Hints:
This protein has 35 residues and is an all-alpha fold. The protein is built from 2 helices and no strands. The chain has helices spanning 6-13, 21-34. The longest helix is centred in the last third of the chain and has 14 residues, at 21-34. Residues 1-35 are annotated as: Disordered.
Amino acid sequence: MPRRPFRHNRRKHSPPEEKPPENAEENAEENAEIK
């Protein structure tokens, strides 16, 4: 079984294009905590 690239998984977890501008602020805070 080939190893999945981390980039692909990360991109699926947080798609910036699908994120609406209203949730962008909330997501920024969540990303800061996760980082």
